[in-house]
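Progress report, Aim 2. The chain analyzed during this reporting quarter is listed below.
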Amino acid sequence: MAERGLVHVYTGSGKGKTSAALGLALRAMGHGQRVAVFQFAKPPDGPSGEIALGKRLKHLEIFRFPNQYPTYGPLSDQERKEMRASTQEALDQAAEAAGGGKYDVVILDEINPLIRQKLANLRRILQLIRGRADGCEIVLTGRDAPAELIAVADYVTEFIEVKHPFQKGTPARKGIEF
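Predicted structure tokens for the chain:
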């Protein structure tokens, strides 16, 4: 009988939450495990090293959805509506991935800010966690993880920003930040 997979939350203001989740994914794939990454708050066709790599690795699938941005700044009512619908579609697919037994690791990348912004339903995410197949690890990333998510997690790591090149105006760099 498979062991129950655990729940990981990577949160906080520091850089490295997605990188940590993808590092866990690489480790899992090194042992032949299958990984699904659902990326939120990122444009579906935006540049990304992980998307490029995912196309070359047989045990990694990365999913992005339309209308998943912007997450910073005010949103119009129409943008909020579209983002909620897109997020719900993504969560439905993620729940199927986590519960269907096809994947050993399911990552919900940058989901936490969407919960805070009420663009993702926390109850739906908790259902996804409870409904995962035996052995399926769930990883949730992003700033501002809610207390309810932290309470059900087995691992919680808070990343703290001490210093970052963005503070000096250095833009995001290919291969490092995306």
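The two ends are 38 Å apart (CA to CA). The CA atoms of residues 163 and 171 lie 14 Å apart. These observations will guide the mutagenesis work planned for the next reporting period.
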